């Protein structure tokens, strides 16, 4: 299948940050074959294309990477509008997740995958930690496969100091990782992958951290962990182990270039240095950090240390959406207001974190840039709308004006999974109707007020 994207404002995000206000991208199969100014696009190239996308008035850029989410939480939007982290978990997330069925986890994940795609994220890392049934994990993979997204299922767990029904023993965790790796890692032509997740330092024993990291590296998997999200989390780790979060992880051999540290709001300077020395990726979730009043991460200080930084929405239960274009604006503005420096981050800094930083977190050298030979994970975003245009600089319009509703087309592995704002592989209306019906049933089961079955 050959596809030609022509006429849009092409932002390559390559090292030279080349862009063309009128450009083209040619695709053959799952790879980009050519990119450049529209004047260089030959009539023969267009004649050979099976699909031609006229993207005049749109930005064309590599797909964004949502480097941390919890897809099952699409069923829990709006339940934590005025709750800090601990209350949110104990009063909403844990009870609701324990009431969910296997079908619920599939539907919630499918809604989450569609949301990511339609908001410009071609890749998502889903940290999933609700293993009330083994099938839950497989069904999330099935949802990723059905939606067409590039998905990493990060199987996270806790073996101590956590909600009892959600804890697992170490041998079960390792056995399930082996099973999922055999069945899913590299599935769908490499589009689906598995990662090892440690839920947080205080919820994971040193034995689990050591064994999980060892097993993951033997299988070639990435590692992800929540780190220092709140001051209370940082204090709990000190009280439990006598060390700060990253110090503890470093001593246990968890840190490395394959490690993703999520949140990192309350790291001290020494922890940042340890992460930089290890080559770890730090994942910034600005909207969730504000929503739960966790704090503001010092992203500029991370970048100044040479750390790779990726961006993420976090779960829909603490955001409450997965709009990666929205995350761009919050990333820039949160750094400005906390540093009192209007120049602390430029739009291209933010785009680079959201695209190339995410690709590096995934360990993918073939993602994050529009160039020949790279994977054709591409999004197009409408610029000629009253809240976006007239446009002076496309990078500024994307960071400060556009939102997920402006995403027009999405390609993953060269396949159109969203075309003219509509998902192409699944029936959105049918999925949303099923999901709403299940949430209504769960609300009744849990005795929650409001909502109901007759508002739609």
SSE order and pairing:
Layout: E1 2-6, E2 9-11, E3 19-20, E4 23-28, E5 31-37, H1 43-48, E6 51-54, E7 58-62, E8 64-69, H2 85-99, H3 102-118, E9 121-128, H4 134-147, E10 150-157, H5 170-184, H6 187-190, E11 192-198, H7 206-219, E12 222-227, H8 231-241, H9 245-251, E13 259-263, H10 269-278, E14 281-284, H11 286-291, H12 299-304, E15 308-311, H13 324-339, H14 347-362, E16 378-382, H15 394-400, E17 407-412, E18 415-419, E19 422-423, H16 428-446
Parallel strand pairs: 1-6, 2-7, 8-9, 9-10, 10-11, 11-12, 12-13, 13-14, 14-15
Antiparallel strand pairs: 1-4, 2-3, 4-5, 7-16, 16-17, 17-18, 18-19
Helix pairs in contact: 3-4, 3-16, 5-7, 9-10, 13-14, 14-15
Number of DSSP strand runs: 19
* Poorly predicted residue ranges: none
Discrete helix count: 16
Separation of the first and last Cα atoms: 40 Å
What overall geometry do the principal axes of the alpha carbons give? globular
Strand order of the largest sheet: 8-9-10-11-12-13-14-15
How would you sum up the major sheet? 8 strands, parallel
CATH homologous superfamily designation of the largest domain: Metal-dependent hydrolases
What percent of residues are in strands? 15-25%
Portion in helices: 40-55%
CATH C-level of the largest domain:
Alpha Beta
Gyration radius (Cα, Å) is: 21 Å
**What is the residue-averaged pLDDT?**
96
Name given to the CATH architecture of the largest domain:
Alpha-Beta Barrel
State the domain count: 2
> In the CATH scheme, what's the topology name of the largest domain?
TIM Barrel
Class of secondary structure makeup: alpha/beta
InterPro entries: Amidohydro-rel, Metal-dep_hydrolase_composite, Metal_Hydrolase, MTA/SAH_deaminase
Enzyme class: hydrolase
GO molecular function, one term: hydrolase activity, acting on carbon-nitrogen (but not peptide) bonds
Keywords: Hydrolase
